[in-house]
Give the backbone structure.
Amino acid sequence: MSMKGIIVRSTGSWYEIAGDDGKVYKGRLKGKFKIKDLRVTNPIAVGDVVGYEHENENEETVAISEILLRKNYIIRQSVHKSAHGHLIASNLDQSVLVVTLAMPRTSYGFVDRFLVSNETFRIPAVLVFNKIDIYDKESLVYQEAFSSIYSKLGYTCINTSTITGEGIEELRTILKGKTSLISGHSGVGKSSLVNLLIPGLNLATTEISDFANKGVHTTTFAERFTVEENTYLIDTPGIKELGVFEVGEGELSHYFPEMRAILNECKFNNCRHVNEPKCAVIEKVKSGEIAVSRYESYLSILLGTDNRK
Ligand code: GDP
Ligand code: ZN
């Protein structure tokens, strides 16, 4: 008899499944798996709903026999095989990106690529500006300008500090009742944030490496954690760079909400918004209604130049 469950952890060779019966199983893939039209380096993602069968008398290990249709997923270009994608997570209610504008500074390009990968399925995105406690006056002005670009586009932006506790309750409210992906460059404080949200989890943070032998979690693989009933966080290893995967030239502007809104105003319906006459996008960049940084990210993804880090 086939049972159903959700993948809560993936190591690449085996998976942890939260079964409908409330138990957690260790699962392996049974037979050959080929997901139609999706070239990926990993066939199963955290968040996938799967069917599984008990293989033998061993109660804890099961064979995964099917993957149910995904509501959505986040995929990035594989670092090793550029023609392949790497599934980050699936079946999300929202996606949270932890950003810092100092130590380390997250670039516009990184944020915009992240947002594009969410927009392909219209997954609501939240930007969390962490380490707000270390910004001086000047950096705060920069941070406000940075976040206002995104709040104007409809993305939720909040400021947090794991040191002062600013914004943590607001973040908790945003997460409540949802399954959220949480990602970011390593060093932005993602593990520190998750640890505040889930007391007792003790994810390893960068400076307390001597804790490593005390059974502290290290996130090398995506994993779903329970914040409270019906509230889940899918934590991903720190991402170094984000390659947009399989977004066609004609599609890309649809994943920039400010461009999507005005696409029928361009003179040519196949306008690439690069140098075409009477292009509504270029006009709005000139008038300041579209942020130059957003347009630069668009061009960089379209033309394959590098601003992915
Ligand atoms: P991760 O790599 O994104 O998981 O980042 P960590 O949680 O390991 O944090 C990286 C470093 O940033 C550590 O030294 C943390 O103590 C520090 N850090 C995390 N959050 C904050 C914050 O809000 N303010 C400041 N000043 N430092 C922070
Ligand atoms: Zn145009």
